[in-house]
User: Fold NAD(FAD)-utilizing dehydrogenase from Novosphingobium pentaromativorans US6-1.
Amino acid sequence: MTASYDAIVLGAGAAGLFCAATAGQRGRRVLLLDHAAQVGKKILISGGGRCNFTNIHTGPDRYLSQNPHFAKSALSRYTAQDFLALVESHGIAWHEKTLGQLFCDQSARQIVAMLLEECAKGGVEVHCGDAVGGVDHADGAYRVRYGDSEASAPALVIATGGPSIPKMGASGFAYDLARQFGLKVVQPRPALVPLTLPGDDTLFRELSGVSTEVIARVEGKGKGAPAFREAALFTHRGLSGPAILQISSYWQRGDTVTTQFVPDRAEGWLKQAKRDRPKATLRKLLSEDLPDRLSQALCDRLGLAGDLGNLSDKALGAAEAKLARWPFVPDGSEGFAKAEVTAGGIDTRGISSKTMEALKVPGLYVIGEAADVTGWLGGYNFQWAWASARAAGLAI
Ligand code: FDA
Assistant:
């Protein structure tokens, strides 16, 4: 027997839970399906278990998409302050960590519990643990088979996310379903992901575990990307840390990533230091700003030993320029296995920015990470999940 609903939401992650709750509270009969045994698994591991649930600096410029204006409407109609008000109404204590990033004081579990409570208020039927066997559309209704059951509804919401971290149940299911209904997909690629360096770039190996604040930039096809001032971390395979994760979303194969070491030093600082402290060494100078191992490795690479007073202004100028744009040429990334999000996804040029409904497929909606909207690191991806979910939840 086929059970009928007003809407079926596929995927009980951040976007699916919030969309189902919103529609349910408007009186819609909603079925929320997930193949995982439990809802909101990515929320639970997010922000180191404390969930960086939004960012107070959210704006469309913090997102990547082939259709850059698409996210504006939903983001302006459901803001970080709106989500924060919901968090506070559930008595969840929070704090701003840095750069506008809001985290739970206690646990990401509170966010999942809050979303489930909101779903319960809306009478949402939540079903976990069965894979979706197939979807078809006839006579204005979507029919979904899952486990031994079947359900139908005039509205179907794709909220199954992207393929990042497949071992957590992430899949490319959203794209297969989108293609089944004639929607286009922008080539998905790992984003917010550590970058790997070729074996002959030995700097990173010596420095594995060292972290320092840099300004990271990308040169090449990704030129024009913003510069990110945050920590970079050397790993045994290459580069990671927030600055690198941010720039990885813009990096394309063949591009150079540059890191500006000692970002607080004004132009001409090495020549000035030569005049002020001619007996100091470059290593001594760098170690005032950088971890010791890094200072040593950079000095070795620059080949500048001895007192500053004995080094030419030209050599110091060249060293300063190199320190300001130290080049790394990644040979790849750690891939979907380690990517925090997926860039690309269902092409938003085929979707209404007001309702998230496919323009040519009435009743089919796309929300969250499944769509080609990718946020920076720092709570922006959840804010997109909430905002797009809200837009669809108010429309179905
Ligand atoms: P999401 O991936 O959350 O949910 C999709 C759901 O669909 C899952 O429950 C999955 O099981 C289900 N599904 C998949 N295929 C299916 C199928 N075939 N049938 C049925 N169900 C299916 N962002 C942020 O803003 N702040 C943060 O702190 C973090 N931290 C973070 C840490 C880590 C380790 C990761 C991997 C990611 C983050 N993120 C983040 C990113 C954030 O988790 C992500 O952008 C959102 O979870 C996206 O929400 P969605 O609901 O779109 O997808």
